[in-house]
Amino acid sequence: MSLQHSTSIPVRTFADRDVPAGDAAALLASLRHMVEPGEYAHPVHTADAPSALSLDEAYRQCVAITRTNSRSFFLSSQFLPAQKRMAVRALYAFCRTSDDIVDRAMDDPARALARWVAQVHTPRPPADNPVLLAWNDTVQRYTIPGVLVDELLAGIAMDLTVHRYETFDDLWLYCYRVASVVGLLSMHIIGYHEGASPYAVKLGVALQLTNILRDVGEDARRGRIYLPQEDLRRFGLTDDDILAGRRDERFRELMRFEMLRAETLYDESWPGIALLDADGRMAIAAAAEIYRGILPRIVANDYDVFQKRAYVSLLGKLRILWRTHRKLRRLLQDA
């Protein structure tokens, strides 16, 4: 079932959605007044790093960040050639650190993000910041467009002020910025053919929606509800129900509804794997299928996303990898 033909999930296709022109740049520009001239020369905390790091050491620290924070992505990226593998782990470390700036700021998260954005935009990164050193090298090596980086940072900035989304179309922009853009950035590293971008956007939205469903309880404890308000009303729920962690049949129906939306997006994004360069297909396919595997784990937990964190075990990941290899082979045979 496709989203555009579904009577139960009224969602427009990718081609019907536009990213507001200039909106990301304007959003980031609004942060600039929070940074004093030259303040960005002082590193934002990312790790206990010595001064004047070598590029090799910077990349090694990005590998460590990836291994520590996402075993699934670390495993999936093993399927890439060495140079591309190092670059996507620098991308992951950059995304992880950027996101943590807001979620783990000790003082003012807006000011912390403003300092980080200023550092990202600096032509020469701080010599003692491993993430920015490796990321800057990756950006130059793979000619990554700055406009995409700004879209990602704008998505993170949205978390400073936007804690509710009225419709799925409103949520789509957030998902695009914090997840689909990561896919588009990855494509510049992995290599791709014409027509791949819309599939990457759909996959990104599917991944972020999966993340939102897994983390409903964690986000609620931060005062955030990403589930669209119109969907809560559809199933007779309110913000108070989510914030209180009420897991009744109404909530289960809501979760089934959103999971169907995610599953459909995964299905619709799958043909795009064939449009990636050959040496990157298995890595992206594995990352997508392993993350998709979180959804049945939510069901197995009886939709308890308030007290339990759904995850795929190592054995489960190995099984998914075997199925993904066969599924990818069929896709390429049919292409």
Could you list some keywords that capture this structure?
single chain; 16 helices; Farnesyl Diphosphate Synthase; disordered N terminus; mainly alpha; 335 residues
Mind telling me the C-alpha Rg? 20 Å
According to CATH, the fold-level topology of the largest domain is Farnesyl Diphosphate Synthase
By CATH reckoning, the class of the largest domain would read Mainly Alpha
- Give the topology string: H per helix, E per strand: HHHHHHHHHHHHHHHH
Structural category is mainly alpha
Supply the number of helical segments: 16
CATH architecture of the largest domain: Orthogonal Bundle
How many domains, as an integer?
2
Strand runs, count = 0
Describe the fold and architecture.
- Residues 1-15 and 41-45 have low confidence and may be disordered.
- It is built from 16 helices and no strands.
- The protein has helices at residues 23-29, 55-69, 71-77, 82-103, 109-121, 130-141, 146-161, 168-190, 197-214, 216-221, 229-234, 239-243, 249-269, 281-292, 294-300, 314-334.
- By secondary structure, it is mainly alpha-helical.
Which SSEs are present, and which pair or pack?
Blueprint: H1 23-29, H2 55-69, H3 71-77, H4 82-103, H5 109-121, H6 130-141, H7 146-161, H8 168-190, H9 197-214, H10 216-221, H11 229-234, H12 239-243, H13 249-269, H14 281-292, H15 294-300, H16 314-334
